[in-house]
Design goal:
Chain lengths: 560, 583, 329
């Protein structure tokens, strides 16, 4: 029944033997089958097993957007340039933005051999209109196929700014495959048929593999196989990177300054796109509470932050300048207004200025070193999400910096759930978050998402992205005007952009911190052709789509 | 039935031992670090541009990714962790005491309800509970109290089950029943009778709760769900993980917090051992046996020739300790073949110790300090029992000398059938016997003692007390021993059964011819059945004579007192109460 | 018979209570699955149009203003039918699929490691308790110290030493991703290989508890009369140790073991975090962070059923191994 001493020894021996056998046998399992062409292993940060779904409209689609399915055009958000033709070759708006005419590429076939025609485009757009659950861009047009290669979309309102969503973020699916699907919004697509440069070769829960499409209309890509891995997060990604098991990863890695030394064969490119800001619940009329509703406090914080130190300690020097206009200095440099007090936020703290602003607004320094006004201490809470490694360090650092300036800042870490809830309800004072870009390299989107009254709501009600409850009628008017102007007409747009910029610099509902450099580490020794600082042909994040397809198309195995 | 005395407070204090010393030292050191440390070190939150640096140059334990001093952080973090551990320990112990003890004591519906509640709480997963409860606590209070509350709420249930089980068992004890019958109020009964006896268990559960709290908080913090606005060892580990300490090889950042937790837990565990020893004194560490216990050299008694089977010469047994107890002092006895020698005396005089020592069944701290035990085997001659090797002793036991123990209630293995327990004697001592022969022998002996052989299939608890005792006797005779030692064989049985058993023994002795050493406090019984009687007082034999002589001409004063203290069934009304003198 | 019926009724009540509580807990959590989903998509920086909110609400079906009671009743109904709904965090995979793919990993790794720890602990505990006063006594504090070490910290150290520094074992994952899961030698071998470090961590840190408990019970048992009788009977030492002492001493440990097995799932969360193991613990964490009600409820159900079933099994098992209960009732 129970083992005797002999039994214990026997069991121990059996286990040791088993381990030895397994270890010996597994020596060989480490070698993948050696292809003629190397496989590119990409890690998107997937932290649990993949559940197969290549439906490009599902919010949890695991991939294939850009690689298997394509859009009509590709908008590069990191460079101010014209969109690149993909399934479409040309498009034109009418004068008041209510009609969009698109010319499609000829000679394109689906991966099952059927021809790609305008009917597929119309079908896709109609499907989105019909099933509201798929309409994640607010598409409100009516599409018609003029002939096999021309499509016209009619809108009720001037819809210049909705163009990039339709043209650049809507993935075209084959009508002949999708027309029989009863509920396409929730369909699980296991065998995707697309027009793109890659096909699905194999799916396993911890990795799926794409293979090059020999019949691709642009020619078969040089990288023949791409494998996407599921690991368990940043830590696992870094470990795998060090072991040379991943070829492309986006996210913070330790020692990113010396990537070439710490990860031999790899290079890093840092692309500043998302703008880190301290989001404040700024509007007392809309129900916000706390010292941050006073613009003077927000300005003081803006001047008190030591951005150089922050960049060094929390972001390993990968942060870049940010502008109080929230335009990207690299991409939108010409659009930055000369009327701004400061073109970019100061990298050095200006404690004298901060003191001046606070004392001018009636704050007095107490004996404990912190400012107070009317008996109320200048004490704020700053919320962040546990798990955002760099932000947590940043928040702690900022707290220390503001202490020097006499402002008491208490960092609070919350779970995702609470964080999202706090922003939604407006029950926060400061929150660290980033302002993201829209579907095209056009500053309109940032302003529309984060500064327009239409996207906000009172404290307690659910807002859109404008959680700061900022509401300014002049800004709203300018945004309205921008919607009616053709984006190509920069001269007509500029005055409105300037209005917006100056208003938001004054109010500063979002206190700019730094522009976050999205860190990309790639295996330069294995593949060449990656986007670099000198050639930003796409946003080089591994999870960006359809940008990642653009990268794959340009890559070549090294030495070929 | 004996009434257990109220818990003596002195018995609740742990005995000193190396484990307790090391454990207390660890706990004390770490607690001091937590209390006093923050006053001695710098500011743990001060950031510095030097970034991640190894130990040295002003930072004894190096710095973190933002240039914060690790040593300072450890001091504050220790304090934070200890605070949480203490908080949770107290809360969880209180809750488990409430639901475990009160529920079990109250019994009935309350007990069922509380027990159901405990089981359900055991099942609720703690992780989402953390988040839910966090949302209801105002942000200023959030942090230590939130996490502590959640850990306490999710951690009390297991402890409650343990306390409930113990309380249920205590509830049935005599002194509790006595208190209830006396009309004491429930709270007083719980507080005065039950709680003190549960104190060691409560203390042990408290220590477990503290260890578990610190470990769980560390785990929660590691997942990023911990007390965010406070500093504990768990949050330090979280930040270390956050800052890629492992990948960067910054061992000075993630090793110390874990080490402190480990050492503290270790200290608590060692202290818990000492508490365990209070609960169960048998757990006390034995002094390492450095070899066989040295036995004073005495010559074995020479063979007396005239049918003596067992000789004890000057046997002394002492319980070693701070104050040695001389349980058996210089005892010399002879047992002749086929004779019934009675050994009488009051409880605690050393009779059982003597019996065990004869068979070398005594265990440390009992030690034979002088004398010899010689067995005069019919076949093999004289055997010096105290000098036998372990293997020889094993072969000797039961085959030459067997025992029937006091209270067969517990002398039979509850999880084996009667057949298994009887047969293993045969298969060990007579390996050559076939299965059929073994079975036949068991059947024979059971029939001999008057037990239905079908009972071979039964388990001990299925037999009555009297039957069990008969089985024990049958078992004792399996190998045809030459001596059978009976230690109070009928004390726990009613007089009718007692009569029957004794008659069996006499009959068997007549048939099989073994000698009997009959140990009891019941002198009148011995006067009836024994051939010779020895009286024992305080470890010494004060009288040793044939039974008639003891009855008619007792020589020792104590013997006279013993004889005089048994009530008489005949005589005048009220005259049964003896004065203690000779009638 | 009445005893068994009462026990069964008790467990059914406990099951209902736990299920109901598990229904309410996720709904009391702050945040809304749609918001969280959008926040997660936005974190990637590729931007999500604000109009996506409405679309996702419809998609995920979380826009319900249904009264709570109606939701509860349909939840119970679905439970009985075996329909656990669709996972929000792995949309649109059904929850039962998510659990079916991840549960075996947890059961295999953590379950087997726990069984190993229990067996080692009990066997060693029997020996340590039997042979008191020898060097074996030092095993007790040694293993208890190991139990006091924070489990994940031990895991990190093992990974750093055995995985990174010495490179003897893989650092993370359940198996080598190039292999196909299935009953083939390559995959099973790889799975075993990847399972060594996690299993080692579990065994090292939990063996102490079992050892201590068993040893204490052995010490108590050895003072019992029947052990004394066994020794007096001149039985071989091994027989006394196993059949008389240990057989009685480990009964309580069996109860503890069955119950601890029920908690394997809940306790596997940290393990799977550290080792990136594709088990159900990481699914629970994912569900919690995404307010994925359906997945959370299903995993809670798994834990609840496991614990209650373990309790029930223990009660039944006791009847078998302890004859006093079986025949005495």
């Amino acid at each position: 029944m129970l083992s005797t001493e002999r039994g214990v020894r026997a069991r121990a021996a059996a286990i040791v033997a088993a381990v030895a056998v397994v270890a010996a046998g597994c020596g060989s399992s480490g070698n993948a089958a050696k292809d003629e062409s190397p496989t590119l292993v990409a890690y998107t940060g997937q932290s649990s097993d993949y559940q197969i779904n290549f439906n490009p409209f599902a919010p949890t689609s695991i991939g294939g957007t850009g690689t298997i399915f394509q859009t009509l055009f590709f908008y590069n958000i990191v460079r101010d340039e014209e969109p690149t033709p993909r399934l479409g070759t040309q498009f034109a708006w009418n004068a008041d933005g209510t009609q969009l005419s698109i010319t499609l590429r000829e000679g394109v076939s689906w991966s099952d051999g059927e021809k790609f025609t305008a009917d597929d485009v119309v079908f896709t757009l109609d499907m989105i209109s019909k099933h509201k659950g798929m309409n994640s861009t607010g598409y409100a047009g009516r599409a018609t196929a003029v002939d096999d290669t021309h499509v016209t979309i009619a809108f009720d309102q001037p819809s210049f700014v909705d163009g990039p969503s339709v043209l650049g973020k809507t993935y075209i699916v084959p009508a002949h495959k999708w027309k029989d699907i009863a509920d396409p919004a929730v369909a699980v697509v296991k065998e995707p048929v697309g027009t793109g440069p890659y096909l699905l070769e194999e799916f396993k829960p911890q990795a799926y593999t794409l293979k090059a499409n020999p019949a691709y209309w642009g020619g078969e890509p040089a990288v023949k196989k791409i494998r996407y891995l599921a690991l368990s997060g940043n830590q696992a990604g870094t470990t795998a990177l060090k072991a040379g098991q991943i070829d492309w990863q986006t996210g913070p890695v330790p020692d990113v300054k010396d990537v070439e030394k710490s990860y031999p064969g790899y290079k890093a490119v840092i692309t500043p796109v998302n703008q880190i800001a301290l989001v404040t619940c700024s509007s007392a009329p809309l129900g916000c509470q706390g010292p941050q509703t006073d613009p003077a406090v927000r300005q003081a914080i803006y001047h008190a932050i030591d951005r150089t130190q922050l960049n060094a300690l929390a972001f390993e020097g990968t942060g870049r300048d940010v502008s109080p206009s929230f335009l990207l200095p690299d991409r939108d440099g010409e659009l930055i207004s000369a009327k701004l007090r400061q073109r970019t936020a100061p990298m050095q703290p200006d404690p004298a200025r901060a003191r001046q602003i606070l004392e001018g607004a009636g704050y007095a320094k107490g004996s404990d070193g912190f400012y107070a006004k009317g008996g109320k201490p200048l004490s704020l809470t700053l919320k962040t999400v546990s798990g955002w490694t760099d932000y947590i360090t940043a928040v702690n650092t900022i707290g220390q910096q503001l202490k020097q300036a006499g402002i008491k800042l208490t960092p609070q870490q919350l779970s995702w759930n609470e964080f999202v809830d706090a922003k939604d309800r407006g029950e926060y004072q400061l929150v660290i978050d980033s302002l993201y870009q829209g579907p095209a390299p056009d500053p309109f989107y940032v302003y529309n998402y984060f500064f327009s009254t239409a996207q906000t709501a009172k404290v307690g009600a659910k807002p859109g992205p404008n959680v700061s409850r900022f509401s300014d009628p002049q800004v709203d008017q300018a945004l309205d005007a921008l919607k009616r102007i053709d984006p190509a007409d920069t001269a007509a747009r500029q005055p409105h952009l300037e209005t917006i910029q100056t208003r938001i610099e004054q109010a500063m509902p979002y206190i700019p911190v730094l522009t976050q450099g999205t860190i990309n580490v790639y295996h330069d020794a294995k593949f060449t052709g990656w986007p670099t600082d000198g050639d930003r042909y796409a946003f080089p994040a591994v999870w960006a789509h359809p940008d990642n397809a653009e990268v794959f198309l340009r890559l070549k195995p090294a030495g070929r | 039935m004996t009434l257990q005395p109220r818990a003596d407070w002195r018995h609740l204090v742990p005995r000193w031992s190396p484990k307790l010393a090391v454990g207390s030292a660890l706990i004390l050191t770490i607690t001091l670090c937590g209390l006093v440390g923050p006053l001695l070190v710098g500011d743990p939150d001060r950031i510095d541009n030097i970034g991640l640096t190894p130990p040295g140059g002003g930072h004894l334990l190096g710095t973190t990714q933002t240039g914060q001093d690790v040593l300072a952080q450890i001091a504050y973090a220790t304090r934070g962790s200890l605070y949480i551990g203490l908080l949770v320990g107290v809360m969880a112990t209180f809750l488990s005491a409430l639901f475990g003890i009160v529920g079990a004591y109250a019994g009935g519906v309350v007990d069922e309800a509380f027990s159901l509640f405990s089981n359900v709480m055991l099942v609720i997963p703690g992780l989402p509970l953390v988040i839910v409860i966090s949302a209801f606590v105002p942000p200023e209070q959030r942090g230590v109290w939130t996490v502590a509350l959640v850990l306490a709420i999710t951690g009390w249930a297991a402890s409650a089950r343990v306390l409930r089980a113990q309380t249920l068992s205590l509830r049935g004890r005599d002194y509790v029943l006595a208190a209830r019958v006396a009309g004491e109020r429930p709270w007083r009964v719980i507080g005065v009778e039950i709680l003190p006896n549960l104190l060691p268990l409560l203390a042990s559960q408290f220590v477990f709760a503290v260890i578990a709290a610190i470990l769980n908080e560390a785990g929660l913090s590691f997942l990023g769900l911990g007390a965010s606005s406070s500093s504990t060892l768990g949050t330090m580990l979280y930040y270390a993980q956050n800052g890629f300490a492992l990948q960067r090889g910054a061992w000075w950042w993630f090793v110390p917090p874990g080490l402190v937790i480990a050492l503290f837990g270790c200290g608590l565990a060692l202290v818990n051992f000492s508490i365990d020893e209070i609960i169960n004194p048998k757990l006390r560490d034995l002094r390492r046996r450095v070899g066989a216990v040295a036995r004073p050299a005495t010559d074995p008694a020479p063979s007396p020739g005239d049918g003596v089977v067992l000789t004890l010469t000057g046997l002394s047994v002492t319980y070693q300790g701070e104050r040695p107890v001389h349980a058996v002092r210089d005892v010399s006895l002879t047992l002749r073949r086929g004779e019934i020698l009675g050994l009488a005396g009051e409880s605690g005089c050393g009779k059982t110790t003597l019996a065990y020592a004869v068979n070398r069944l005594h265990r440390p701290p009992a030690e034979v300090t002088a004398g010899s035990v010689t067995f005069h085997d019919r076949v093999a001659g004289d055997l010096d029992i105290l000098a036998l090797t372990p293997e020889e002793l094993r072969a000797f036991r039961w085959s030459k000398l067997s025992m029937v123990f006091q209270g067969a209630m517990n002398a039979l293995n509850p999880v084996l059938t009667i057949r298994a327990q009887m047969q293993d004697v045969l298969s060990t001592h007579r390996p050559a016997m076939s299965r059929a022969a073994r079975r036949a022998r068991c059947v024979d002996l059971l029939t001999l003692v008057g037990v239905d052989p079908r009972r071979l299939r039964s388990y001990p608890h299925e037999l009555s007390g009297g039957m069990r005792q008969r089985v024990m006797i049958a078992m004792a005779l399996l190998l045809d021993p030459q001596v059978v030692i009976l230690d109070e064989p009928t004390t726990a049985l009613d007089v009718v059964v007692q009569r029957g058993i004794l008659r069996e023994i006499m009959r068997l002795r007549g048939e099989l011819g073994f000698a009997v050493l009959f140990i009891t406090h019941d002198l009148p019984l011995l006067l009836e059945v024994a051939d010779r009687i020895a009286i024992m007082l305080d470890g010494q034999i004060v009288e040793d004579a044939p039974a008639e002589d003891v009855r008619d001409r007792p020589r020792h004063a104590y013997t006279r007192r013993l004889l005089g203290s048994f009530p008489s069934l005949t005589g005048e009304r009220g005259a049964f109460v003896r004065s203690g003198g000779v009638s | 018979m009445r005893y068994y019926l009462r026990k069964l009724a008790f467990y059914l009540v406990a099951l209902w209570a736990a299920v109901t509580l598990n229904f309410f807990i996720p709904r009391m959590m702050p945040g809304d699955p749609v918001d969280i989903l959008m926040a997660k998509l936005q974190q990637r920086g590729s931007g999500v149009d604000p109009s996506a909110r409405r679309a996702y609400e419809l998609l995920l079906g979380t826009d319900s203003d249904e009264p709570l009671l109606r939701q509860y009743l349909s939840y119970l109904g679905n439970l009985v039918r075996g329909d656990f709904g669709i996972s929000v965090s792995d949309f649109p995979t059904p929850v039962s699929t998510v659990i079916a793919t991840s549960l075996p990993w947890t059961v295999a790794l953590v379950g087997i490691a726990t069984v190993m720890a229990v067996l080692f602990g009990i066997v060693l505990g029997v020996f340590v308790g039997w042979r008191r006063g020898t060097w074996l006594d030092s095993l007790v504090p040694a293993t208890t110290v190991l139990s006091a070490v924070p489990y994940f910290w031990l895991a990190l150290i093992l990974v750093a030493v055995l995985g990174s520094a010495l490179g003897w074992f893989p650092l993370l994952g359940g198996y080598d991703v190039v292999l196909t899961p299935g009953w083939n030698a390559d995959f099973l071998g790889s799975a075993l290989y990847h399972g060594v470090l996690p299993a080692l961590t579990i065994v090292i840190s939990s063996v102490g508890g079992w050892l201590l408990g068993t040893r204490n019970m052995m010490v108590s048992t050895m003072a019992e009369d029947y052990v004394l009788t066994a020794r007096a009977k001149g039985l071989r030492e091994r027989r006394v140790m196993v059949w008389y002492a240990a057989r009685n001493a480990v009964l309580p440990s069996v109860a503890g073991f069955a119950i601890s097995l029920g908690f394997v799932v809940a306790g596997s969360i940290v393990t799977e975090q550290v080792f990136a193991y594709p088990g159900i613990g990481s699914k629970l964490l994912q569900a919690v962070q995404n307010n994925d009600y359906a997945l959370m409820q299903a995993i809670f159900l798994v834990i609840t059923v496991a614990v209650l079933a373990a309790n029930l099994a223990v009660d039944l098992l006791y009847g078998i191994i302890d004859p006093r209960i079986r025949t005495g009732g």
